[in-house]
Write a structure and sequence with these properties.
The protein is an alpha+beta fold. The protein has a single domain, classed as Inorganic pyrophosphatase (Inorganic Pyrophosphatase, Alpha-Beta Complex), CATH 3.90.80.10. The chain is built from five helices and 21 strands. The strands form six sheets. Strands 4, 5, 6, 7, 11 and 12 form a six-stranded antiparallel sheet that branches. The radius of gyration is 19 Å and the shape is globular. The two termini are 33 Å apart.
């Protein structure tokens, strides 16, 4: 399949909002032979699998799941310990732009966060550059703000559960990868529960050697400590206090992480089936059979067309020299 990455350039201040995004591996299997493409339109990354989908609601949480007539990704085929999860990458490792799934927009595209009219970036937390892992979310999960965690006594942050992918590949915004869950960190952000799942790309060369959080500690000395330090301090340059952590900042193991993921999946199911208060969360989807928010492929396309701007189209097999690419983007 030839995969297209569409790049829309939006000016911001003296520079270009997003630049240099060239497809390296733009199609991704998400289970049952389905493949995704991704494109950037109007400063938003929309995902498509033959038709436009929501990365929040339409990508199965678990790879190779039994798809019944209910909400997708209900039960895995494999033994629980062998389950792989789909991860939607929002922010590539070493980058600073604060990209995230837009939970309040129809089809939930990925876009850069804006505050007071300005695009948001995370500061470099010495000695690190940008995010120190590929950062993203598990689809079909939701940290319910009306649910109080019994361990930390904090409510959810109203977002999909976050993932830090520690593999060697630098991913792209909108890329969907299959990950092994290794553990979890209980971050408390301004009083809200904000779990951070630690995982590795199942196709990473190190994946076969990493099966739990202790394997990470042994094979990558200092990496977990750096993760806690980064999350503690990354909002300080913006004038906010340091973040706190449950369990004294200790990582919980894989089994604990899977139980938290299961819980957030059940909260998501209630969300898309309108069994709980969705607030401003946009639940439009094309695949959740019992969801009152399900829409047609044509309706999904209309959502994308409504935000479509001038698009530059690159093919997966294009080899564009950097100078030529800069000229195309108007940077030279």
């Amino acid at each position: 399949m030839r995969v297209h990455l569409r790049l829309s350039v939006q000016q911001s201040g003296t520079g270009v909002w997003y630049q240099g995004l060239v497809p390296g591996s733009g199609d991704h299997t998400v289970g049952q032979g389905k493949r995704l493409t991704f494109e950037l339109q109007g400063a938003r990354v929309f995902l498509a699998c033959g038709k436009y989908i929501s990365p929040f609601h339409d990508i199965p949480l678990v790879v190779e799941t039994e798809q019944g007539n209910d909400v997708p990704a209900k039960k895995p085929k494999k033994n629980e310990s062998e389950v792989l999860f789909n991860m939607v990458v929002e922010v590539p490792r070493w980058s600073n732009a604060k990209m995230e799934i837009a939970t309040k927009e129809p089809l939930n595209p990925i876009k850069q966060d804006v505050k007071k009219g300005k695009l948001r970036y995370v500061a470099n937390i010495f000695p690190h550059k940008g995010y120190i892992w590929n950062y993203g979310a598990l689809p079909q999960t939701w940290e319910d703000p009306d649910h109080t965690d019994k361990e930390t006594e904090c409510c959810g942050d109203n977002d999909p559960i976050d993932v830090c992918e520690i593999g060697t590949q630098v991913c792209l915004p909108g890329q969907v990868i299959q990950v092994k869950v290794l553990g979890i960190l209980a971050m408390i952000d301004e009083g809200e529960m904000d779990w951070k799942v630690i995982a590795i790309n199942a196709e990473d060369p190190d994946a076969k050697n990493l099966n739990n959080i202790e394997d990470v500690r042994k094979s990558r000395p200092g990496h977990l400590e750096a993760t806690v330090d980064w999350f503690r301090k990354y909002k300080v340059p913006d004038g906010k206090p340091e973040n706190r952590f449950g369990f004294n900042g200790q990582f919980k193991d894989k089994d604990f992480a899977v139980e938290i993921i299961k819980s957030t999946h059940e909260h998501w199911r209630a969300l898309v089936q309108k069994q709980t208060n969705s607030g401003e969360i946009a639940c439009k989807n094309i695949s959740c059979c019992e969801s009152p928010f399900k829409c047609s492929a044509d309706e999904a396309r209309d959502v994308v067309n409504s935000v479509r701007t001038s698009i530059m189209l690159f093919h997966k097999d294009d080899r564009i020299h950097n100078n030529s690419r800069q000229k195309l983007l108007g940077l030279s």
